[in-house]
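Whiteboard transcription, Tuesday session. T.W. wrote the structure tokens on the left side:
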């Protein structure tokens, strides 16, 4: 006889944050407006043909990933609030989880590559365009996609092998992998090990690269003024890295006791929705090139680009050290 826990479940119940109509209406209006504004800003950044430097190439890829990141969760959440439904198909849950893992991995690797670009721009300004050539930039982005694809494919495959005794009820607004795994009625030790190992790998490797890049930047600038200018330029990147890593690690390295708590759901909200939405504001609106992009697209020219800014900064700081 076949066991009853054959995992032939058709739907997954997403409990979300609150069942109160007033709070759901507030959440609907807030995230709908944020989502639309974010998409418009990112599309304006991507569509500008003047922004062709390596930094903007990585920023364009990051913006595209952020659109995919937020589009994986927000539209479904808005539809569920509007229709007063909390269900998602099992296939849709696995698909959503796959793209969430893919986009989160891409965010991590692209932030690391952008840190390396800042290191080259400040520490080797005269060779910046030679080192960060189009071929290398494309190879770095391709490597980010390959590693992220392998990571998300591995987790999705591991989840598909699990069996579930009852219908899935997840106390999240999306299919979060830890929640799905811990609702299985079979042994999840292998899944847990894969989650923890890949989480450590995604944390230690890229974070080490980011810290190394900034340590080299600090060691290459001797004056206090130069250090201040360098870190004021990199403040947006550092703030996004800190917010993204803290919330992401807080979710995937948290103990099983807190898996159903509202604090975990809030942390998940930060790295899946808030951080991708803040990226265009932090990176784009603080940058003079992208601020002036709409005017430049009407016939003007860019007054400065990021490479010139980094080069002048690094050269001036090194001149002060002699």
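and on the right, the sequence the group agreed on:
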């Amino acid at each position: 006889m076949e066991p009853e826990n054959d995992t032939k479940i058709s739907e997954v119940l997403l409990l979300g944050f609150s069942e109160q109509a007033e709070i759901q209406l507030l959440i609907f209006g807030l995230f709908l407006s944020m989502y639309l504004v974010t998409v418009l800003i990112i599309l304006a950044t991507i569509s500008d043909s003047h922004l062709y430097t390596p930094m903007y190439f990585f920023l364009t890829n990051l913006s595209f990933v952020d659109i995919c990141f937020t589009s994986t969760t927000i539209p479904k959440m808005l539809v569920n609030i509007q229709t007063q439904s909390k269900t998602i198909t099992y296939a849709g849950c696995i698909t959503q989880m796959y793209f969430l893992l893919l986009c989160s991995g891409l965010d991590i690797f692209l932030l690391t590559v952008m840190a390396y670009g800042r290191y080259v721009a400040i520490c080797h300004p005269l060779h910046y365009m030679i080192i960060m050539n189009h071929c290398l930039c494309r190879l770095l982005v391709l490597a980010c996609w390959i590693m992220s694809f392998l990571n998300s494919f591995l987790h999705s495959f591991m989840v598909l092998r699990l069996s579930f005794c009852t219908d899935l009820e997840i106390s999240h607004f999306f299919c979060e992998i830890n929640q799905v795994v811990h609702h299985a009625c079979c042994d999840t030790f292998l899944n847990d090990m894969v989650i923890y190992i890949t989480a450590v790998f995604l944390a230690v490797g890229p974070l080490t690269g980011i810290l190394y890049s900034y340590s080299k930047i600090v060691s290459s600038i001797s004056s206090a003024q130069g250090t201040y200018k360098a870190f004021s330029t990199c403040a947006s990147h550092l703030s996004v890295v800190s917010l993204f890593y803290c919330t992401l690690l807080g979710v995937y390295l948290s103990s099983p006791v807190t898996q159903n708590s509202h604090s975990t759901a809030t942390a998940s909200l930060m790295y899946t929705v808030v951080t991708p939405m803040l990226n265009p504001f932090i990176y784009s609106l603080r940058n003079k090139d992208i601020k002036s992009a709409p005017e430049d697209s009407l016939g003007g020219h860019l007054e400065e680009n990021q490479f010139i800014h980094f080069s002048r900064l690094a050269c001036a700081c090194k001149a002060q050290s002699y």
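Someone added at the bottom: The chain has 13 helices and three strands.
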